[in-house]
Each structure stands twice: as structure tokens, then as C-alpha cells.
């Protein structure tokens, strides 16, 4: 039987994949490619990724403002989110 910890780990790993897909979509758009924004799968991925990344974006903005720096043209929130999720997965693996 699957334990609740395994289910949470599976969901966190799926979140990492969703974040990576969202980053790839943004790179494709930046390079001039077309990602169909009205595709239900693309909208689902963007909605989930934005829900996870928005707190990290706000934290990034607060830290940069408190340091007196201008906002960066590069969004580091996906990297921060993936690092935090991987730390959570590592902690949950210790509970098995």
C-alpha cells in the first residue's frame, strides 16, 4: 500500500516537472516561438506553476528592494522553488 508520504513526494516531483515545463514554455516564447496559450494543458501548467512561483517571486522582489537593488531581468523564482521542493522531498524521504 502507498503511504501518504509517498503520495506527497509524488506530488512534489510532479510540481518540479510542471515548473520546468513552464520555464521551457517561457523560453520558447522569448525566442519568438509559439506556445498555444489557449490550449487547456498549457493553461493548466501555467496556472499551477504560477500558484507555486508567485510567493517566490514576491520574496525575490522584497529581498532585492531591501538590498537597494533594481529588479533583475532574470526570474530566479523557479530555481528557488525547485531547490525548496527538493529539500522537502529529501526531508520526506527521511520519514520513510
Q: How would you explain this protein's 3D organization?
A:
- With 96 residues, this protein is mainly alpha-helical.
- The chain has one domain (4-95).
- Helices cover 76% and strands 0% of the residues.
- It is built from three helices and no strands.
- The chain has helices spanning 4-30, 40-66, 77-95.
- Helix 1 crosses helix 2 (40-66), helix 1 runs antiparallel to helix 3 and helix 2 crosses helix 3 (77-95).
- The longest helix is centred in the first third of the chain and has 27 residues, at 4-30.
- The protein is flat.
- The relative contact order is 0.16.
- The mean pLDDT is 92.
The fraction of residues in strands falls at under 5%
Task: Report the end-to-end length measured between terminal Cα atoms.
Answer: 13 Å
Profile the largest sheet.
Answer: none
Mean pLDDT: 92
Please indicate the count of domains.
Answer: 1
Alpha-beta content class: mainly alpha
The SSE string, one letter per element, is HHH
Shape: flat
The number of strands is 0
**Radius of gyration, in angstroms, nearest whole number:** 16 Å
Low-confidence stretches: none
User: How many helices?
Assistant: 3
Query: Helix amount, in percent?
Result: over 70%
Amino acid at each position: 500500500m502507498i503511504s501518504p508520504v509517498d503520495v506527497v513526494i509524488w506530488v512534489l516531483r510532479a510540481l518540479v516537472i510542471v515548473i520546468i515545463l513552464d520555464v521551457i514554455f517561457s523560453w520558447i516564447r522569448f525566442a519568438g516561438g509559439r506556445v498555444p496559450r489557449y490550449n487547456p494543458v498549457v493553461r493548466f501548467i501555467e496556472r499551477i506553476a504560477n500558484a507555486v512561483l508567485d510567493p517566490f517571486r514576491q520574496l525575490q522582489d522584497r529581498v532585492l528592494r531591501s538590498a537597494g537593488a533594481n529588479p533583475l531581468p532574470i526570474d530566479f523564482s523557479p530555481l528557488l522553488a525547485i531547490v525548496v521542493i527538493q529539500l522537502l522531498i529529501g526531508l520526506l524521504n527521511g520519514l520513510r
